[in-house]
Automatic annotation (TrEMBL):
Entry keyword set: Cell membrane, Membrane, Transmembrane, Transmembrane helix, Transport
Family: Belongs to the binding-protein-dependent transport system permease family.
Signal sequence coordinates: none
Name of the protein in question: Carbohydrate ABC transporter permease
Any one Gene Ontology BP term: transmembrane transport
Superkingdom per UniProt: Bacteria
SUPFAM superfamilies in UniProt: MetI-like
KW Nucleotide-binding (keyword) present: no
Pfam families to which the protein is assigned, alphabetical: BPD_transp_1
Annotated ranges, domain ABC transmembrane type-1: 71-260
Protein source organism: Nonomuraea cypriaca
A Gene Ontology cellular-component term: plasma membrane
Subcellular location: Cell membrane
Length: 275
């Protein structure tokens, strides 16, 4: 009886999840392949014409190929931000896990504060202006790193807690210094949680809309999410092109989750159990 209830609950959850995902996604695809007049109805009606190529070309060519530049900017932003987050978060988590004390407790409080306290937009803009990085890609990379560190540190620390301290002591007896101990002994053991951090953080940075909007206004350093404004104006919206743009910028993170979903779950589960 319990097995039947469990199967029934899993089936209901699967159906609900499928509906919640497929209904908006199918609406997005249908609108993206319609012409401008029919797309303005915003309904599930079957397209009377299929201007798929025309819509695709119009999105790519909009505002002097800004979408292509945006993909390059988003790729640079994502790769640089995730690389820095992984390195800094892993090192910080190792130190916080191995050194327990008042300073460590304060650092843990600050890490948790990074998840709880909302970002301060105006002071961050002032700081970026003071160091000359406002409206620049390096400045946006620093912002993404600062906002993403807390989450990554917590994941790394939960995983590091399962690594025995005897391994550190043995490496130190063999002559390993602090950095060499971390990069040669500890960091290779963090591969499962590192993959999880890379995938989840990459999707978060690539899909970020608010930070690029505030900290890199303009077309020069536009990211893919900002290009959604290309097809909206004060009086009208080109819904077919807007949804075609959404489809194009949804494909990379969607493919990452489809192909690496098991690795994401495995890394989070391992960290949760070992922590």
């Amino acid at each position: 009886m319990r097995a039947l209830k469990s199967i029934g609950a899993e089936t209901i959850a699967f159906v609900l999840a499928t509906v919640i995902f497929l209904v908006p996604f199918s609406f997005m695809l249908l609108t993206a392949v319609k012409d401008q007049v029919q797309a303005a109805d915003l309904d599930f009606a079957w397209p009377t014409s299929w201007p798929i190529v025309q819509n695709f070309v119009a999105v790519i060519e909009a505002r002097d190929y800004v979408l292509l530049r945006a993909f390059v900017n988003s790729t640079i932003l994502t790769v640089a931000s995730v690389a820095l987050i992984v390195i800094f978060a892993a090192m910080a988590a190792f130190v916080l896990q191995r050194r327990v004390g008042k300073i460590g407790s304060l650092a843990n409080f600050l890490v948790l504060s990074g998840l709880i306290i909302p970002p301060a937009i105006v002071p961050t803009i002032w700081l970026l202006q003071a160091i000359g990085l406002f409206k620049s890609l390096p400045g946006l990379i620093l912002v993404e790193v600062a906002y993403g560190l807390s989450y990554a540190v917590l994941l790394f620390r939960a995983f590091i807690a399962a690594i025995p301290r005897e391994l550190d002591e043995a490496a130190q007896i063999d002559g390993c210094s602090g950095l060499r101990l971390f990069f040669r002994v500890i960091f290779p053991l963090l591969r499962p949680v590192t993959i999880t951090v890379i995938l989840t953080t990459s999707v978060a940075v690539f899909n970020d809309f608010v930070n690029p909007l505030y900290f890199t206004p303009g077309d020069e350093n536009a990211t893919v999410q900002i290009t959604l404004y290309n097809f909206q104006s004060q009086y009208s919206t080109q819904w077919n092109l807007l949804f075609m743009d959404i489809v194009l910028i949804t494909i990379p993170p969607l493919l990452m989750f489809v192909f690496f979903n098991r690795k994401i779950v495995a890394g989070m589960t391992a960290g949760a159990i070992k922590g």
